[in-house]
From TrEMBL:
<dbReference type="InterPro" id="IPR003749">
    <property type="entry name" value="ThiS/MoaD-like"/>
</dbReference>
<dbReference type="InterPro" id="IPR016155">
    <property type="entry name" value="Mopterin_synth/thiamin_S_b"/>
</dbReference>
<dbReference type="Pfam" id="PF02597">
    <property type="entry name" value="ThiS"/>
</dbReference>
<protein>
    <submittedName>
        <fullName>MoaD/ThiS family protein</fullName>
    </submittedName>
</protein>
<dbReference type="InterPro" id="IPR012675">
    <property type="entry name" value="Beta-grasp_dom_sf"/>
</dbReference>
Amino acid sequence: MSVTILFLGPLADLAGATEREVDAPVDWAGLIDAVGADVAGQLELERVNVACKGRVLADKRALMAQDGDEVALLPPVSGG
């Protein structure tokens, strides 16, 4: 039973990987523990979003990922 965490954009650089498998279930505290200090610091920022099962969460701290779910960590969009 696992959850896949996807690290996108610069968050992948901080994590040193594009994805990580962790034991299910995963809530907000479990996500913070699983991603490492550098990524966790970024997740605390309001401009970084979290998606679960393909949907961006209105309240990322309400995360509750179950077995087989995919959690994507979405950095802010930049560009001109």
